Amino acid sequence: MVKNIAIDGPCGAGKSTIARTLAKKLGYIYVDTGALYRAVGFYALSKGAKPSNAEDVVPLLSEIDVNIAFVNGEQRVFLNGEDVSEKIRTPEISMAASDVSAIPEVRKFLFGLQLKIARENNVIMDGRDIGTVVLPNADVKIFLTASPEDRAKRRYEELKCKGADVTYEEIYSDLLKRDYNDSHRETAPLKKAEDAILVDTTGFPFEKSVETLLGVILSRLEGK
Q1: Is 100 helix (H, G, I), strand (E, B) or coil?
Q2: Does the structure show a pLDDT above 70 at 204?
Q3: Are 193 and 135 in contact (CB under 8 A)?
Q4: What angle separates helix 168-184 from helix 148-161, to the nearest 10 degrees?
Q5: Which of 15, 73, 90, 209 is the Cys-Cys partner for 126 at CB 3.0 to 4.6 Å?
Q6: Which helix (H) or strand (E) holds 215?
Q7: Containing H/E element for 198?
Q8: Are 128 and 190 in contact, with CB atoms under 8 Å apart?
Q9: Are 126 and 12 in contact (CB under 8 A)?
Q10: Is 165 helix (H, G, I), strand (E, B) or coil?
Q11: How far, in Å, CA of 65 to CA of 42, rounded?
């Protein structure tokens, strides 16, 4: 029997970096579902489409072939055969991902790929609706969060390390917009699953966040 771990939470909560580390420790495959939506948002922008406009985006889905591959345990995202893993990590693409994720046809388009991976592998999958929609029967569900200020600071430092020309104020403003979009969309809004464990890592160093979630996961799996 495969094991599925679902980690949901708002933008900048550290889901990707923490989940990636946990997957290595547990020998699981890490699936960053947000990267799939980023790829769709990236393609929409490249075609001059407005990511929030379903009439613009839906016709483009027939042109999109998005897949993930695992290279040395790391997830890489391929869009029409091109590795776009780095190109999709910008504030602009982050907002585009939030916009396209509110379109039901986009969610349906990517749902099958996510489910197939989870059925065939032990996975840690993170996103906005993993525990509520994609993997409602996951063995462990965690809702990971932190204060908006803390999340913006982490995202700002991450992007600055990559050489991005951004300010903390811009990141904080974009984060609040994305929080609102993600929690108020009609289709699969961001929310905590009833049986998910809430973990708030405000002020936590990275190592403490990993240790906390690892403890929750192992405790829950032992009880299965």
Answers
A1: helix
A2: yes
A3: no
A4: 120
A5: 15
A6: helix 206-222
A7: strand 197-200
A8: yes
A9: no
A10: coil
A11: 13
Mean pLDDT of the chain: 93
Tell me the C-alpha distance between 92 and 171, whole Å.
10
Largest CA distance in the chain: 50
Domains (ranges, CATH) in the chain? 4-222 (3.40.50.300)
pLDDT tens digits, one per residue of 18-56? 999 999 999 898 888 889 999 999 999 999 999 999 999
Please state the length of the chain.
224
Distance CA 114, CA 215 (A): 25
Backbone angles phi, psi at 219, to 5 degrees: -65, -45
* pLDDT over threshold 80, residue 73: no
pTM greater than 0.90: no
Contact 210, 22 (CB under 8 A): yes
Q: Which amino acid is at 191?
A: K
Report helix, strand or coil for 65. coil
Distance CA 222, CA 189 (A): 30
Residue 224 has pLDDT above 70, yes or no: no
What's the rounded Cα separation, in Å, for the pair 50 and 42? 11
